[in-house]
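Next comes one such specimen:
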Amino acid sequence: MKNIGLIGTGVLSKAFVGGYLAHLTDDYNLVGVLGSSPKKSEDFADQYGIKGYESIEKLIEDDIDIVVEFAGVPAIATYAEKILKAGMDLIPVSTGAFANEKLLNSCKEILKGKNNKMYLPAGAIGGLDFMRALTLMGGLELDFYTVKNPRSFNKQEIKEITTIFEGTAREAIAEFPKNTNVTVTAALASVGIDHTKVKIALDPEVSSNQHTISLKTPSSEVTITTKSIPSPDNPASSTLAAWSVVGLLDNLRNDIRFF
């Protein structure tokens, strides 16, 4: 039985707990949660009958094997190194924090020679296995095209399809840290954040968050498209991101694993 500590008390954390209760309780035990304030930790903990932590130090002091994060880029920027130094596995959804190469390299150094790991979930996209394979084959070009409703970016004034960004994954996460974690995930799995080309458009006619990833090498071409309904309470995200973590944990516990 592996003990899980949760960071974040929002929509995705609630979706994750729902998936955990439905599928993972035979092999995992959700022990406690850390929110952005002691009150949020306590309220969430009371709802699910778990502990509420007042600080990251309290979480680390507990008997936790795996930390799952749904709290945003600043949380990972602040907590990732502490969690890994404590010997816990880390599953961060806010992968945009690792556009900071100093943080990413520090985490890599911490993990050298240790038994714990950091697992980056696919979130609201798929195909990380293709990205890794095609990267190793060589000559990969990756284009990432996102279309969302203007509500996702709090730009309801947009009344027709409008491109609001073109640039690299590094530039995308710097400008839109709540909406573009998946671009950094794809970049880290493939050609890097400075070589992943990102385009973002807003379309008031679409009701789903849409991501199209085009992968091309001299010998192969792959196109991956995902469409997921955004959360009514958090239009920037869909619950698919939470379920990707449920799927990852399910994979880790099985003798036969899918990659």
